[in-house]
Amino acid sequence: MTREFWQQIITNKYQISSDPSPSGAVVGSRSDPSPSAVPPEGASWNQEGAAVGSRSDPSLQDLLPELLEMLASPDPELRDGFAYPILATWIQQGAFSQEQLRSLLVALEQRLETGLGETESDAVFARSFAVLMLAVLVNNPILALEPAEIYRLLEVVLSYFAREQDLRGFVYPQGWAHAVAHTADLLDEFAVNQHCQSPELERILNAITNKIPAKSVWLFDEEDRLSYAAARVLERGLLSSEVVSGLLDALAAEVSQSDEHKSNGIPRHNVKAFLQSLYFQVLKLEPSSEHLELILGALHKIN
Length: 303
What we know:
With about 300 residues, the chain is mainly α. It is built from 13 helices and four strands. It has a two-stranded antiparallel sheet. A two-stranded antiparallel sheet has the order 3-4.
């Protein structure tokens, strides 16, 4: 499909149509009572749940492979301008069946291994935007992942996150890489999933604190995205003060005692920025939280 085709979809408020006339196809689910789900006059539902106005209009199933390819593209317009917002919107509107969403989930998981371990290759866009799309899927009511599926997916994501070495934020001219920030958004979705209880939440918080003292300065709000995910973990109220203080104090101790970190101020800067951000994230979510004192205590250890 041409760029003009994808731009027309966005202009038409995510309707599939080869032209802007009312006879084009409309994204929606048969069970969706909203006006966007009602086929326009003269149109009919196809097997994918989209209303088709003419035989020249492609179905969702026709477009999905190309959208997935675009989602991994180093071209920021194709990836960030078209593929991500279109796919995310259609998923949130209920345009895909459970079977289609499960197939998408499998494809996205496989991408997490693409070029993993490389530090400055375009493969990061495939991984990073797969993670960002997984954040749209994890709590999707149509996909409806069972507890065992949530736990398995969390294992996959935590393993990926620990091994992700490309920490770049914005890359010129390819645009946003942001693998760390996108993973933070996904971990935030796990944090609010009710199937995730204290063991899972502790592992999420541990994964976040392990990533913070990197040797690259967080320049593009990565510490804020990570701290928000951490704050959402704490907001659940399932982790003991001992667990939380242990993780935070260990993080502070790592950069205050290590000779390597003393000679390189970047990890210390990252940890301090994370803890400061975490304090205000928690303050906003829970003004009377007991975790505020624990965060301040960790900050004092590195000041």
